[in-house]
Amino acid sequence: MEKKPLSGIRVLDMTQFLSGPFCTLTLADLGAEVIKIERPGLGDPTRTDIPTKDGTSAMYISCNRGKKSVALDLKNPAHKQVYLELVGKCDVVVENFKPGTMQRLGLAYETLRAQKPDLIYLAISGYGQTGPYRERGALDIAIQAMSGFMSITGEKDGLPTKSGASLADVVSGIYGVIGVLSALLWREQTGEGQYVDIAMLDAVVGSIMQNSIARYCLSGVVPHPQGNRHPASAPFQEFDTADGSIVVCCPTNAQFESLMEGLGHREVYEDPLFRDTESRYAHKDELAQVLSPIIRERSTREMAEMMERRKLSFGEINTVDMVVDNEQIRARDMLVEVEDRRAGRFDTIGFPIKMDCAKPEKSYRAPTLGEDTEDVLRTLLGMEQQDIDALLAPYRS
């Protein structure tokens, strides 16, 4: 295996569902050795998420490829001692339990730091480790609601709407990666470990909601859903074509002028209602009524080719199957082949960061539950086979 930026870094992965596993997946793609601790006989709940094929979950594989699986029962004192020994061999611990869970297990950061003073400990939770909401449970849709995201999403005058994807989980996972990388750099500079506290609510408010909150704090005007339109620019929305639909974005006067020339309707640009950015936005409904029949006369491909020639921003509205087959996605290695012992080979999402020192592996595989337990205990902790057998005997069927 080629050396990567995080080669030599070992991560003890205590995560489940999406936010934490997505974080540790990224660390694995950057070269870290990720050892995922799972409950014997159960494992990460996403192992049974639908859809499945021959008992293999697409969700589990997509977020856990390239990791090792060690099955430990942390309520068993002997297993807990093994876990503490593993902590001493690792650089980073990542968990995404509700605050207080690790304390109840006797495995809080303070306990682990005594085992390894320079440990980096990342905790991802719904609302963070402090504040009045710290003990609330939270899944992705709850955070989308609490952050204000749902209040600005959807059709104008329509119901609050969540994102079609698990936005809060993924964003908090990304911030978790940033926290770990920053803490590793800090440790290199100072020799000190770090406790990294990532709240899903903070992650969404501090990134996805940044623009809306900034606008409100300046103007005092509460943002509301705009459908697919931009809150300050037009045209900036989807239009039907003769055979599909396309998003058209022209935030500047020069871009709008080029669009109308490309469509053969410069007179629309010359109209005083649409001649400048502010006026176009003030009359966005009228502008949409003018543009809709013009664009509907052309195919999606004709629109795309015209706008590409003119270096304008646009996007065909693709369904998921079209994304999977898209030539740009394929050219960027954003789909990689994984191989499962039961389900065989199929594609899953690749690594979006492109750099020579982090090239993707030729093939990936997600571990079966506990498949690396004996190997990790033997090679990392130096345990004898009879001791391993005694430790695991109660959990073997």
At a glance:
With 397 residues, the protein is an alpha/beta fold.
Topology:
Elements: E1 10-13, H1 19-29, E2 33-38, E3 52-53, E4 56-57, H2 58-64, E5 68-71, H3 77-88, E6 92-95, H4 101-104, H5 109-115, E7 120-125, H6 140-146, H7 167-190, E8 194-199, H8 200-205, H9 210-219, E9 236-240, E10 245-249, H10 253-262, H11 266-270, H12 277-282, H13 284-296, H14 300-309, E11 313-316, H15 320-324, H16 327-331, E12 335-340, E13 344-349, H17 373-379, H18 385-392
Parallel strand pairs: 1-2, 1-6, 2-5, 6-7, 7-8
Antiparallel strand pairs: 3-4, 9-10, 10-11, 12-13
Explain this structure.
With 397 residues, the chain is of the alpha/beta class. Helix content is 40%, strand content 15%. The strands form 4 sheets. The protein has a 6-stranded parallel beta sheet, with helices on both faces. It has a 3-stranded antiparallel beta sheet with strand order 9-10-11, with helices on one face. Strand 12 (335-340) and strand 13 (344-349) form a beta hairpin. Helix 1 packs across helix 7 (167-190). The protein is elongated, with a radius of gyration of 25 Å.
